């Protein structure tokens, strides 16, 4: 294996840098880095140490010198660095006295890059995510170098000067205007995304379909687009009969100009730099290896932007490219005859390359997104060629010498792009379009990565590689087996109270690994909380399906995201009450019920006495979820008092969930056995609930309050909090702690 590393010194150095940067965050990577440096030759080891030293110094200098602006002023002066199109307006990147900021702007008089402006802004608080798995705004802002973000309320342009970003913005505007002359809006938006990196016009539905099917890379300008454009550019320059060296130098210059126009993502610069290295080798008549070219590109990117090492886009782009390059170097079996050759060219070889890219990115997909698309290979076989041809036709429509020729190419591009959208939407409907995998322990991901990396060497009968690969497989098997043993010998169950604002959303996990979502939180004001918080949390926890959604009562702060969850995530059953089903005055609630029926999800009516039991294998005890309230025959006018009350017990611990139950409903529970270790306070801690008599009867050690910060109802009530304190009941609020996890094990309850 050492000889193979010696063949790719640049790539070896890039991997060393990535491992060194990774070890600064995840200490486990330090062991992998030590092993990697150990197996290198002495010369490569010295080079790797030197490169690592330079880039690590750059990383820590940038990291230590960055901080978010504290209490930024509401107005001031600055210079517009960049303007980005967004679905609902623009994002203005503004350089101020306290650093670079990002401001959303909705208005007609758009300041342009290079403009000096007086501004007035409203700043947003920079807070870490309170729901695990959701978007981490502070980390993203840090990676972009933004010291503050907010909305631009007023702007006055004082003067302007020419900048490259101004030229880039002007090019994009003219390109969009040109496309709209020959294309319908959906296809124009697709071409803007494919050629200019502007996806603001592409519908959210279509973007979600591409994400589900694992084809979102097609919509983002990456190596696929750059390689295709580079090929077209090379052919065009050769057609002009320019000297070869002149055409090669022009190709390099034009692509280096194109990269920043598209936004200059790491994937674009990686592809452009690789092209520059390969073409430079031809200019100087030196042989250039594609894997070494990848290494040179990665090192250059990390020198100027070392934080890119932690970017999922950068990692996936590098891994996919490495997998494809390795795959291209493997000799595949030959098929004879016209049919065999056609099968090899159009199905077998593309499938193999797709497999190589999929395997190389799999550990990263599991680590970052806990998701994988089993049908992405089919999309890559069908959709990617259609998009590629559509993009080429779109480029040709720009350079037609007559409107008729332009329209002909535009019609061809429209047909191809529309076909790719229809096929993608068809694939996205498939229940296997996206599957949840993980999360897996970091050491297992390392072992799987090493195993995948060694596959090409195992084909060459390399015994050392085979031994290491077998060890990696046994290591992973041992770790997963250990987790299964722990789950059976030391069982536990949990309840997670998600911080989704002024509403309830509670995820119950049984000892056997079944999941029940009690309520689905309030609807989002601008974006769906299901897509932004709840479903990302499911994926981050490795949840592949929800066994049942339980809606306590038909109020929007309890069912607000149920329809989106039913549409976007596998759900086996939908539980509510007959009273709720008869309450059809609310159009949004009717939509939830109709969505469940259209998705084929059975709707089950709960009533007093119903429930389910789950037996534990080793301890032979039971986990029990029981409905204590309401009676299906009696429907209160006040929907809060129709709330489903659930008692969950197992391993000697009990949890009571009361929805929005108020005093009248609590009285009906007093004769029942409602003593519990943990209580979810009814109606978000309102003074209309949680009477002293009820609290004394439940006698919990802890109470959870699902509530939003600074809510208009001023929940929880001071009267209720004082009552809890007087009874010695600890209270935990999602408004203060974020999402709250309560874990129940044998004789023990822990709140996180």
Defining key terms:
27 helices, 752 residues, 22 strands
Please characterize this protein's 3D structure.
Helix content is 51%, strand content 16%. The protein has 752 residues and is of the alpha/beta class. The chain has an eight-stranded mixed beta sheet. The protein has a seven-stranded mixed beta sheet with strand order 14-15-16-17-18-19-20. It has a five-stranded mixed barrel with strand order 1-2-3-5-4. Helix 8 (204-212) crosses helix 16, helix 10 (244-261) packs antiparallel against helix 11 and helix 15 (376-396) runs antiparallel to helix 16 (403-429). It is globular, with a radius of gyration of 29 Å. The protein starts with a helix and ends with a strand. The relative contact order is 0.06.
Range of helix content: 40-55%
Tell me the span between the first and last alpha carbons.
46 Å
Number of helices: 27
- Compute the gyration radius: what is it? 29 Å
Q: How many distinct beta strands?
A: 22
Q: Can you give the mean pLDDT?
A: 87
Structural class call reads alpha/beta
Query: What is the makeup of the main sheet?
Result: 8 strands, mixed
Strand order of the largest sheet: 13-12-11-10-9-8-21-22
């Amino acid at each position: 294996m050492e000889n193979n590393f010696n063949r790719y010194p640049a790539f070896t150095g890039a991997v060393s840098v990535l491992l060194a940067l990774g070890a600064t965050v995840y200490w486990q990577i330090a062991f992998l880095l030590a092993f990697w440096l150990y197996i290198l030759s002495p010369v490569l080891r010295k080079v790797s140490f030197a490169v690592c030293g330079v880039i690590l110094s750059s990383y820590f200098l940038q990291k230590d010198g960055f901080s978010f602006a504290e209490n930024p002023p509401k107005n001031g002066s600055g210079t517009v660095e960049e303007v980005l199109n967004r679905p609902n307006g623009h994002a203005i990147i503004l350089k101020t006295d306290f650093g670079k900021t990002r401001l959303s702007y909705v208005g007609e008089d758009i300041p342009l890059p290079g403009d000096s402006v007086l501004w007035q802004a409203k700043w947003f608080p920079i807070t870490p995510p309170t729901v695990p798995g959701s978007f981490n705004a502070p980390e993203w802002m840090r990676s972009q170098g933004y010291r503050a973000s907010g909305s631009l309320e007023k702007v006055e342009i004082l003067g302007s000067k020419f900048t490259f970003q101004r030229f880039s913005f002007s090019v994009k505007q003219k390109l969009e205007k040109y496309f709209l002359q020959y294309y319908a809006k959906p296809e124009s938006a697709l071409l803007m995304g494919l050629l200019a990196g502007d996806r603001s016009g592409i519908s959210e539905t279509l973007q979600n379909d591409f994400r589900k099917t694992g084809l979102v890379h097609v919509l983002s300008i990456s190596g696929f687009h750059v390689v295709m454009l580079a090929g077209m550019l090379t052919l065009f320059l050769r057609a002009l009969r320019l000297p070869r060296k002149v055409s090669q130098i022009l190709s390099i210059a034009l692509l280096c100009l194109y990269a920043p126009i598209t936004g200059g993502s790491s994937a674009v610069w990686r592809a452009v730099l690789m092209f520059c290295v390969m073409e430079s080798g031809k200019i100087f008549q030196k042989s250039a290896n594609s894997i070494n070219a990848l290494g040179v590109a990665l090192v250059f990117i990390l020198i100027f932007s070392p934080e890119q090492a932690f970017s999922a886009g950068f990692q996936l782009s590098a891994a996919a490219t490495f997998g494809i390059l390795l795959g291209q170097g493997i000799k595949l079996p030959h098929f004879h005859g016209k049919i065999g050759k056609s099968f090899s060219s159009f199905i077998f070889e593309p499938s193999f390359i797709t497999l190589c890219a999929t395997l190389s990115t799999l550990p990263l997909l599991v680590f970052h997104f806990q998701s994988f698309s089993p049908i992405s290979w089919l999309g890559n076989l069908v959709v990617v060629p259609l998009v590629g041809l559509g993009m080429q036709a779109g480029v040709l429509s720009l350079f037609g010498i007559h409107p008729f020729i332009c329209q002909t190419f535009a019609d061809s591009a429209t047909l191809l792009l529309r076909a790719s959208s229809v096929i993608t939407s068809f694939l996205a409907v498939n229940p296997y379009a996206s599957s949840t995998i993980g999360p897996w322990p970091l050491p297992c991901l390392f072992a799987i990565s090493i195993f995948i990396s060694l596959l090409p060497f195992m084909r060459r009968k390399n015994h050392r590689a085979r031994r290491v690969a077998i060890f990696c497989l046994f290591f992973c098997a041992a770790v997963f087996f250990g987790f299964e043993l722990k789950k059976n010998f030391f069982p536990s169950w949990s309840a997670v109270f998600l911080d989704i604002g002024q509403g309830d959303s509670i995820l119950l996990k049984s000892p056997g690994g079944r999941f029940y979502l009690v309520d689905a939180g309030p609807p989002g004001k601008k974006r769906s909380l299901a897509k932004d918080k709840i479903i990302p949390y499911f994926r981050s926890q490795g949840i592949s399906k929800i066994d049942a959604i339980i809606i306590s009562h038909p109020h929007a702060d309890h069912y607000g995201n149920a329809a989106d969850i039913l549409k976007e995530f596998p759900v086996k059953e939908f539980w509510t009450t007959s009273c709720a089903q008869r309450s059809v005055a609310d159009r949004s609630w009717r939509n939830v019920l109709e969505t469940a029926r259209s998705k084929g999800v059975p709707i089950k009516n709960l009533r007093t006495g119903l429930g389910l039991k789950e037996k534990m294998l080793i301890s032979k005890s039971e986990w029990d979820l029981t409905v204590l309230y309401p009676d299906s025959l009696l429907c209160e006018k006040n929907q809060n008092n129709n709330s489903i009350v659930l008692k969950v017990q197992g391993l000697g611990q009990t949890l009571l969930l009361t929805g929005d139950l108020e005093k009248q409903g609590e009285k009906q529970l007093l004769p029942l056995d409602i003593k519990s270790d943990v209580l979810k306070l009814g109606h978000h801690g309102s003074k209309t609930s949680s009477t002293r008599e009820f609290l004394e009867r439940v006698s919990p050690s802890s109470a959870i309050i699902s509530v939003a910060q600074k809510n208009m109802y001023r929940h929880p009530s001071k009267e209720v909090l004082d009552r809890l304190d007087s009874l010695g009941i600890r209270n935990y609020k999602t408004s203060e702690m974020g999402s709250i996890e309560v874990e129940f094990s044998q004789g023990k309850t822990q709140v996180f």
